[in-house]
Amino acid sequence: MHAIFAIEPEAINNWQDLRYALEKFGYSKGLLIARYPKTWMRLVMEACRSRGLGDIELKRIEEKLQSAKDDRLVRIGLPYDGTSWLESVNAEAVLSQLAAVLVRNRVDIDKFHRIDDASENLFDNRRDFCVKRNANALAETAKYVLAASDQVVLVDPYFQSRRKCIKVLNSMLSICAASGDLPNHIFIFSDHSKDPRQLGEVKLEYENQLNAWVQRGVRFSIFRMAGDQLDQDIHARYLFNQKAGLRFDRGFVEPEAHNEREHETDVVCMDTDLVNRLYARFIEARATIDVVDEILL
Question: 264 and 210, same structural domain?
Fold first, then answer.
């Protein structure tokens, strides 16, 4: 799962420190910044104004924050008492959800790091995760990518309408619903040759298992492609949108054997270029893909 950092607004109350901090983060790096509290961006701007920065630098900072909102800031919905940022972030309910906290001055508390001398190791090796192969663990790993957009694309040659796959998808949507970020459209691309059953049978199975989400306004577009469409991506098991993506080495399946659900699989944050290429191929240029049949729910 992406590592979530909190940054004290006072710690980035100038262009140099703000730029240094933001460059460390991004979906592709496995590192995200909590919008803690939800008015965090405003608090950063207030800290900059309190320092007496000029209009040009303030404008520059505001534009940088707006840009960062799309690719490295996340809402986490944790309690904030409104008195002191440092006291609020140190509450157990908040700190337990964070990988680290970057602050202006030294604080002798675990997870707190002074921004001026934070070790580079703090930001290293956050792109790769090892997670258990049960539905909940796979879904939890993807929750910040799922929340990044109202569209989600799932590419897995072996994805089917059978319960072992739908269980993972259901867990992902349940996590989205719990945080109030339910997507409005799910695109699924699979290999028809891996499950060559008749379209009517497969559609009925999808309808029976996904109807509860359809009733809540989620649309599903399911494309069963010709097998050669994924020859160049023989290990392709991707979850992505136009902002971020993950590669799941073992796909979106909860093993039927209970003991295998305790086995771990690798999940990797995809770099931005790959996300862009996949989005262009499967969404923007979807008409060029050889699709055997299509199911719309």
Answer: yes
Q: Which of 62, 92, 123 is the last residue of a domain?
A: 123
CATH number of the domain encompassing residue 246:
3.30.870.10
Token representation of residue 121: 């190791």
Task: Give the range of the structural domain holding residue 142, as residue numbers without chain letter.
Answer: 128-296
Q: Which of 69, 92, 123 delimits the end of a domain?
A: 123
CA distance 102 to 125: 18
Retrieve residue 147's tokens.
């929340």
Predicted local confidence at residue 251, as pLDDT: 86
Residue 233 has pLDDT above 60, yes or no: no
Q: Are 228 and 290 in contact (CB under 8 A)?
A: yes
Pairing mode of beta strands 3-7, 31-34 = parallel
Angle between helices 55-71 and 40-50 (to 10 degrees): 160
The vertex-212 CA angle with 211 and 218, nearest 5°, equals 80
Q: Which of 249, 209, 233, 235 is nearest to 282 (CA)?
A: 233
Q: Give the confidence band of 230 by pLDDT, cuts at 50, 70, 90.
A: low
Burial 8-20 (b: 16+ CB within 10 A, else e): bbbbbbebebbee
Q: Residue 26 above 60 pLDDT?
A: yes
Give the pairing type, strands 151-155 and 185-191: parallel
Q: Of 145, 211, 218, nearest to 186 (Cα)?
A: 218
Number of H helices, E strands in the chain: 10, 13
Q: Where are the beta strands (DSSP E) in 142-280?
A: 151-155, 185-191, 219-225, 238-240, 245-248, 264-269
What's the pLDDT score for residue 120? 87
pTM above 0.70, yes or no: yes
